[in-house]
Specification:
The structure holds three protein chains of three kinds. Chain B is built from four helices and no strands. By secondary structure, chain B is mostly helical. The longest helix of chain C has 29 residues, at 68-96. Chain C is built from four helices and no strands. Classes of the chains: A alpha+beta, B mainly alpha, C mainly alpha. Chains in contact: A-B, A-C, B-C.
Chain lengths: 240, 114, 127
């Protein structure tokens, strides 16, 4: 049994806050979420943070751990606190609410802005759509469909930092899955929403999003394809 | 500037990139080959004067560069200097025209003028 | 331990440590080489346009090019060109080519080509 102590630095407050240091008992197989939970339950009940499933399914616990956006429930302290140093902060590129909680509203607003909602034309009275699971389009959609909107990719993207109106990797990835969904009819409307410098054409292929996604999704590849598709549509005059 | 226009600019920058990739390789190989053993004004001009192939190739090169570079610089200005607004596009158009003007005068000078 | 700075409007900026990725450095090299080339190009065109004044003017200018500073700048620019070209080809493949991932091998190629060009060109120019 470890008798070690971990010194963890946690952001407290809003923009004008500061890092506060806490001493947490070091345990085997400890996750960063365990650490935060210990601080809130035992040391300082005023600490605000998010979690839900605690088993890597919901994405609620995403925050910045030693400068990198991660899910705290799936991050072992032994993997990140290599020099015994642990620094926790809220997700980047989002307004701060308090402590470790960022405001996810802009993230989801951009999701809507990219027309990230399915739009179909069949009703309950029509037949089911027949979609081949191994078709090129369906496989492309499937490669991005597992996104749970955790915000890690968005928080990792430097282009979002430099261009506050950039829709970001998650919204564009969602748009990509819908562009490949043969049942969807939003077509041109969506293309218009995702083209341009606030859309896919702002991406500079840093690949941070794809490297950091905890679900192994690669928004970079979908965005690259969208650049080509929307540009060709624009050249054909379809985007107005 | 509409999203469609921005998409077209992106496309123009990528197409000009493809053209430039070819032109650059040809250019460097030619220059290195020509430069071995030094070059004098007479030697350069002897090769370029009245050479239509030379002129056509370098006109294409200049125009492609004048499309490719300003669009790239625009992105950098928007992202790292936070410059926004219509004046930025005007500035870049000016830069493109300067490149075309000076570039074509160079080609003309080597091809026939002076 | 570097504290991340809070940005404007209550938004946090990306931490430096989020940038330890090769894709990001490939981008930086590509962008900076592009800026260097964009600044050089007008000068290059202007120098050549002096040939409009005929052979004598061109010879005058070429004498200027024999200086070490000039040759070093020339060498540097060809290196930037090599880096920018290979990085650009990588992007064109990702954006227009068949879907084969982030083509990380091309980043290595970018560095390798730049290095080879740098060494070869320096050797040639010093002969």
């Amino acid at each position: 049994m470890n008798t070690e102590t971990l010194r963890v630095s946690i952001w407290r407050g809003k923009t004008d806050g500061r890092f506060v240091s806490y001493a947490v008992p070091r345990l085997d197989s400890q996750t960063v979420l365990d650490v935060v939970t210990y601080v809130q339950r035992t040391l300082d009940s005023s600490l605000s943070y998010r979690f839900s499933c605690r088993v890597g399914m919901c994405g609620s616990c995403a925050m910045t751990v030693n400068g990198v956006a991660r899910w705290t429930c799936r991050t072992h302290v032994s993997k990140v606190a290599v020099d015994g140093v642990l620094e926790l902060a809220p997700l980047s590129n989002l307004p701060m609410i308090k402590d470790l909680a960022s405001d996810m509203a802009p993230f989801f607003d951009k999701w809507a802005g990219a027309k990230g909602q399915f739009k179909g034309e069949r009703s309950r009275h029509d037949d089911f759509a027949s979609v081949q699971p191994d078709s090129v389009k369906r496989k492309a959609a499937d490669a991005g469909i597992e996104c749970i909107g955790c915000g890690v990719c968005y928080a990792s993207c430097d282009t979002v930092t430099w261009r506050p109106d950039y829709l970001g990797p998650a919204a564009l990835n969602r748009a990509w899955t819908l562009v490949n969904d043969e049942r969807d009819v939003a077509g041109n409307e969506r293309m218009r929403a995702i083209a341009g410098d606030a859309g896919c054409h702002a991406c500079h292929t840093h690949t941070s999003c794809s490297e950091r996604c905890p679900k192994g999704i690669a928004p970079t590849l979908g965005i690259s394809a969208l650049k080509r598709l929307t540009a060709r549509a624009a050249m054909r005059g379809e985007l107005g | 500037m509409s999203a469609a226009t921005q998409a077209r600019l992106w496309y123009a920058q990528r197409i000009s990139a493809m053209i430039l990739a070819l032109c650059v390789v040809v250019h460097i190989v030619t220059i290195v080959y020509a430069v071995r053993g030094g070059l004098s004004g007479v030697e350069i001009l002897a090769r370029t004067r009245g050479n239509a192939v030379f002129a056509a190739f370098y006109v294409l090169f200049v125009v492609s560069a004048a499309i490719h570079a300003p669009i790239g610089l625009a992105r950098i200005a928007e992202e790292w200097l936070q410059w926004r607004g219509r004046w930025l596009n005007g500035l870049l158009l000016v830069f493109a025209l300067v490149l075309v003007a000076v570039g074509l005068s160079a080609v003309w000078g080597l091809y026939g003028g002076g | 331990m570097a504290a991340a700075s809070a940005g404007v409007d209550g938004m946090r900026r990306n931490d430096r440590r989020a940038r330890g990725l090769p894709g990001y450095w490939a981008f930086v090299l590509h962008r900076l080489s592009g800026v260097g080339l964009a600044l050089f190009l007008p000068v290059h065109f202007w120098a050549l346009s002096r040939s409009l004044q005929g052979e004598v003017a061109l010879n005058d200018f070429l004498r200027w090019t024999d200086t070490f500073l000039f040759k070093f700048a020339e060498w540097g620019l060809v290196c930037l060109l090599a880096a920018h070209l290979v990085g650009g080809l990588r992007l064109l493949l990702i954006e227009f080519g068949p879907w084969r991932g982030m083509r990380m091998g091309w980043i290595v190629g970018m560095l390798g080509t730049t290095l080879s060009v740098a060494i070869l060109l320096a050797a040639m120019m010093m002969k």
